[in-house]
Write a structure and sequence with these properties.
397 residues; Rhopdopsin 7-helix transmembrane proteins; 14 helices; Alpha-Beta Plaits; single chain; 2 domains
């Protein structure tokens, strides 16, 4: 076995490993179809190595040469489709199909041309280069510019340049007059070596992009309350902490606590499914009506919190009144048309950096207690320095 055939074997095994990796990781990916397309692409690409080995030993050069070309080109276009799924960039199926058909037709027409000639090299390598540029364009069109995305885009461009450069090098260094002599040439050894490096690099980068997607989704799931879609208690605390750590944090900040009135009666009378719907409607109302930069959370049960950065008490109070009025007018599909629910609110402000998040929550909770005690369905402002123990509150996170 010469060097070129050895590298073909290595490329085949590498492609099979990536195929397995993508199948496994697609089960955890937020876009599983992308991983499956990549797995299929590496499997199809591995067939190119099989066809090139067949050229050496099978005696069916024309068929094997066409098979090697078509399997690699189809694999590159499958990667483009997978990238479209991953980056949410639409795929023009008609254009890709026309491009593939024209490329295959050109490949069949150039087979009898001298393999070391310009026209043969141009017709063979240019479609690969174009396919790689199309894939790179998909990443660019997505607008994502994280390190793995930029690395992937750069690798796709480098691979496109690699295929384009082979047009020149195949002519300059005599890639062989036919398929048999090509596999025995030094040029084939160098070409297959560079190809192996690019295959591994591209495959690892694609895996990295998907892993980052999985990690981002896991982080988001860890921060979000699954029923309401708002931040959970821990994330609420962390997000406020990030705001307070900014070099310039314009005080005051406003803290709102909300509690649905007589919510236990909803569960007891209409069932927990109806109660869940009420939670979801209230959470959606908060998310839609809150200003940009507000941090909204479901602290637990029927209790919610809203942090309004750089907002004074009067503005926070008026905002809470608007939420209270909106909620009292809502109807719920799971409840009788005549049923209307209400919520109570407590408002407190943080006026200086010496005040902690727990202080603000404690004072807002005191105001909420006053609203409940005064008859519910109302907004009360903090009127006393009722400080909650921070460690006790944080332990509940």
């Amino acid at each position: 076995m010469n060097g070129a055939l050895f590298l073909l074997t290595v490329n085949f095994l590498i492609a099979q490993l990536f195929c397995v990796f993508f199948v496994i990781i697609s089960r955890r990916s937020p876009v599983p179809s992308a991983g499956r397309w990549f797995a299929g692409a590496f499997f199809v690409a591995s067939l190119a190595a099989v066809f090139e080995v067949t050229i050496r030993y099978g005696g069916i050069d024309r068929f094997a040469s066409f098979g090697a070309f078509s399997s690699l080109l189809v694999a590159l276009l499958m990667i483009r489709i997978g990238l479209g799924k991953l980056y949410n960039v639409p795929t023009d199926v008609i254009s890709i199909t026309v491009f593939l058909a024209l490329s295959l037709a050109v490949n069949l027409s150039i087979y009898d041309l001298p393999r070391g000639g310009l026209w043969h090299s141009l017709g063979y390598q240019l479609p690969f280069s174009i396919a790689e540029l199309i894939a790179a364009g998909t990443v660019y069109r997505s607008g994502r510019r994280a390190a793995p995305d930029l690395t992937l885009m750069a690798l796709l461009i480098v691979t496109a340049v690699h295929f384009a450069s082979k047009i020149y090098f195949a002519v300059a260094f005599a890639g062989g007059s036919d398929a048999q002599s090509y596999l025995s040439s030094t040029y084939a050894l160098v070409s297959q070596s560079l190809g192996a490096v690019l295959v591994v690099s591209t495959g690892l980068t694609l895996l990295a992009v998907i892993v980052v997607e999985i990690m981002d989704e896991a982080k988001a799931n860890a921060e979000v309350d699954p029923l309401s879609g708002l931040f959970n208690r821990r994330a609420f605390h962390e997000k406020i902490g990030q705001i307070l750590k900014r070099p310039v944090s314009a005080y005051p900040h406003c803290m709102l606590l909300c509690d649905l009135d007589h919510f236990k009666a909803v569960n007891d009378t209409y069932g927990h499914a109806a109660g869940d719907q009420v939670i979801q409607f209230f959470a959606r109302m908060i998310a839609v009506n809150s200003p940009s930069g507000a941090i909204c959370s479901r602290l637990g049960g029927e209790e919610f919190a809203i942090f309004l950065p750089s907002t004074d008490e009067t503005t926070g109070y008026l905002f809470a009144q608007g939420l209270r009025n909106n909620f009292s007018s809502l109807s719920f599909p799971a409840l009788p048309d005549s049923v209307r629910l209400t919520a109570s609110f407590g408002v407190a402000v943080m006026t200086a950096s010496s005040q902690t998040i727990a202080d603000a929550i404690g004072r807002a909770d005191g105001a909420l207690y006053d609203a409940k005690k005064s008859g519910r369905n109302r907004v009360s402002r903090d009127a006393r320095p009722n400080v909650t123990n921070f460690d006790q509150w944080q332990s509940q996170a």
